[in-house]
Specification:
The complex is a heterodimer of chains A (292) and B (279).
Chain A: H1 2-10, H2 21-37, H3 42-56, H4 67-83, E1 98-103, H5 110-123, E2 128-132, H6 140-151, E3 155-156, H7 164-178, E4 182-186, H8 195-208, E5 212-218, H9 224-235, E6 240-244, H10 253-262, E7 266-270, E8 278-280, H11 283-291
Parallel strand pairs in A: 1-4, 1-5, 2-3, 2-4, 5-6, 6-7
Antiparallel strand pairs in A: 7-8
Helix pairs in contact in A: 1-2, 1-4, 2-3, 2-4, 3-4, 4-11, 5-6, 7-8, 9-10
Chain B: H1 10-22, H2 27-42, H3 49-65, E1 79-84, H4 91-104, E2 109-114, H5 121-132, E3 135-137, H6 145-158, E4 163-168, H7 176-192, E5 199-205, H8 211-223, E6 227-231, H9 241-249, E7 253-257, E8 265-267, H10 270-277
Parallel strand pairs in B: 1-4, 1-5, 2-3, 2-4, 5-6, 6-7
Antiparallel strand pairs in B: 7-8
Classes of the chains: A alpha/beta (292), B alpha/beta (279).
The complex binds guanosine-5'-triphosphate (2 copies) and magnesium ion (MG) (2 copies).
One guanosine-5'-triphosphate (GTP) sits between chains A (104, 106-112, 134, 137, 140, 188-189, 216, 244-245, 247, 270-273, 277) and B (87-88, 118, 170, 172).
Chain lengths: 292, 279
């Protein structure tokens, strides 16, 4: 663990006293490696370590903390300041239906997460409608319909012949007619560099003005997370992130990078394949996980 | 613009380190590669940045070529290919592409829908089968994946099929019960044919970071992976963890996925891959 590594670096520091610049640089090398091994983006890690250095150089070794623990404490605090607030909510509209759009790269977990969100919202007293706007992936509509049946949550779909913009607009109209309070739009996975597909998201957004645009990010994403999330944010505009597959052993550094670069809040964590596997975001737990 | 510097200074090594780390090559493998390059350029009289650049590319190609891809088991009838990997990496889509690839060589292909868990997994594979001309053996949702694999191999023998490709459910390698289930699928195949599965292909998403190495280790430990397929290289991710996988585990890369249509599969070529990673 990082604390053990830093303790080794600092055990030459005999008693109490100020940390010297050299002590701090040795420790920061370990911090930087830990962050990179946790998939934190190269530049984000560099900027982060620079901020930690600023705080650590000249600081006193506190009370009973070892110098290593002192640096870890500063690192932990800096991580939390980037990772943001826990428990951010979905902003529900005073005039239903609230429209929540799920976007992201292929295979990140959007369809499964849409179902999870629908279940979560229903448990909270909402009446959700799922909208199947992925007309490209084979059996994507069937996947959402099957999930809807399992949960007894309605799914609006028009098969694969229609334009996703039309499907979404019709889905929201259906929600309004049927008294659904939230419409959850499942969109097709797409590359941030696929102009046509990104334009489709922009057209959907302009047509129906969603209250939430949530990027689903796979927890095991590496350095590319910043590029992809940055492009989605710039082109479509995001209101939140959902980190999926957090039940694995990926360190999740992509979350730190995306937070640092886009400032978009993490709203939920996907923690399993079943539809009840959705948890609120705990930044302190993610910080410990990233540090390893 | 990495190599417009006039000399081999620390700035150049830093730039190379950033290029590799940013491609998900990882800290340890990056250090190993750069050490090897430094050792090589030390033997050159007036090494230029171009020398370093070229030496690095050569080191990377050498790393990727070191585990030779085993020749396909062409005498097996049918040849059995088991496809495994974590959730959402592109297994089912890749199987569709592999089936098209074998079909284009005139082979009869049968697909086993052994993902009996995920919603519409069977339907997804069936659509791919229709698209590329491969029959699909499937059971009802919740059925035992081993039973599907068994029936598929039986059917393949009786129908004179050349290749059976077994699709499995995505599973995180940390889930012990799911890894046990996968081992059981493999044992079922072995019971029918001691040589089966002739290939165990791990599908890895190019956007995956350091976790890819843990995935490769765990799946190899469980079901003896014979090769890796790197998908989604049509994005901006470089899949550099493949270098760590080759270096540490000696697993060959066999194919790359470059899109969502049946044709978007190419044999892995180290030189092409390295040129894309380090232009
Ligand atoms: N273990 C685990 N698996 C998950 C989680 N979320 C989704 N999955 C799985 O990840 C895989 C991909 O999920 P999908 O919901 O199909 O992903 P998607 O983003 O809709 O995929 P595309 O529509 O093709 O882009 C499936 O096997 C899901 O069961 C999670 O939190 N944990
Ligand atoms: N751009 C791109 N997308 C891909 C590629 N390979 C697969 N995909 C997409 O990735 C998503 C997931 O593919 P699947 O084949 O369902 O992945 P899987 O591993 O079978 O998923 P699970 O069975 O749920 O674990 C789909 O949207 C595919 O179209 C690729 O090479 N490039
Ligand atoms: Mg989907
Ligand atoms: Mg699949």
């Amino acid at each position: 663990a990082l604390t053990t590594k830093l303790d080794a670096v600092f055990k030459k520091l005999a008693g109490r006293g100020r940390l010297s610049e050299k002590d701090v640089d040795d420790a920061l090398r370990e911090v930087r490696v830990a962050l990179l091994e946790a998939d934190v983006h190269f530049r984000v890690a560099r900027d982060f370590v620079a901020r930690v250095r600023e705080r650590a150089v000249g600081s006193d070794v506190l009370g009973s903390l070892t110098p290593g623990q002192q640096v870890v404490k500063i690192v932990h605090e800096e991580l939390l300041s980037v990772l943001g607030e826990g428990q951010p909510r979905l902003s529900l509209s005073p005039t239903p239906p609230t429209v929540v759009m799920l976007v992201g790269l292929q295979g990140s977990g959007k369809t499964t997460t849409a179902a999870k969100l629908a279940l979560h919202l229903r448990k909270g007293g909402q009446r959700p409608l799922l909208v199947a706007a992925d007309v490209y992936r084979p059996a994507a509509v069937e996947q959402l319909v099957t999930l809807g049946k399992q949960l007894d949550i309605p799914v609006y779909q028009q098969g694969i012949a229609a334009d996703p913009v039309e499907i979404v607009q019709n889905g929201i109209r259906r929600a309004r007619e049927q008294g659904n309070t939230v419409a959850l739009l499942d969109t097709a996975g797409r590359l941030h560099v696929d102009d046509e597909m990104m334009q489709e998201l922009v057209r959907i957004k302009e047509r129906i003005a969603p209250h939430e645009v949530l990027l689903v990010v796979d927890a095991m994403t590496g350095q590319d997370a910043v590029r992809a999330a940055g492009d989605f944010h710039q082109q479509v505009g995001l209101t939140g992130l959902i980190l999926s597959k957090m039940d694995g052993d990926a360190r999740g550094g992509a979350a730190l990078s995306v937070r640092a670069v886009t400032g978009v809040p993490v709203k939920f964590l996907g923690t399993g394949e079943k539809t009840d596997a959705l948890e609120p975001y705990h930044p302190d737990r993610l910080a410990s996980r990233i540090l390893g | 613009q990495l190599f417009q510097r006039g000399q081999l200074d620390q700035a150049l090594w830093d730039a190379l380190e950033e290029a590799l780390i940013s491609a998900d090559v990882g800290v340890a493998t990056t250090e190993r590669l750069l050490e090897a390059v430094k050792a090589r350029v030390r033997q050159v009289d007036h090494p230029s940045p171009e020398d370093a650049h070229l030496a690095l590319k050569e080191e990377m190609v050498r790393t990727l070529e070191t585990p030779p891809a085993p020749p396909p088991e062409l005498s097996a009838c049918p040849r059995v290919v088991l496809v495994v990997g974590v959730n959402g990496v592109g297994k089912t889509t890749t199987i569709g592409k592999l089936a098209r690839h074998f079909r284009s060589q005139g082979q009869r292909v049968l697909l086993a829908a052994a993902d009996t868990f995920r919603a519409a997994a069977t339907e997804q594979l069936q659509l791919w089968g229709e698209r590329v001309g491969a029959e699909v053996v499937a059971h009802q949702p919740g059925a035992d994946p081993g039973a599907v694999a068994f029936d598929a191999l039986q059917a393949a023998r009786s129908r004179d099929v050349d290749v059976v490709i077994v699709d499995t459910a995505g599973r995180l390698h940390t889930k012990v019960n799911l890894m046990e289930e996968l081992k059981k699928v493999r044992r079922v195949l072995q019971r029918l044919d001691p040589q089966a599965p002739h290939e165990v292909l791990l599908v890895l998403d190019a956007t995956t970071g350091q976790n890819g190495l843990l995935q490769a280790r765990a799946f190899t430990e469980a079901v003896e992976v014979t090769g890796v397929i790197l998908t989604k290289l049509d994005g901006t991710a470089k899949g550099g963890i493949a270098l760590a996988i080759c270096a540490d585990l000696g697993l060959p890369l066999v194919f790359v996925g470059t899109g969502e249509t049946p044709e978007d599969l190419a044999p892995f070529d180290p030189a092409t891959y390295v040129d894309a990673l380090l232009p």
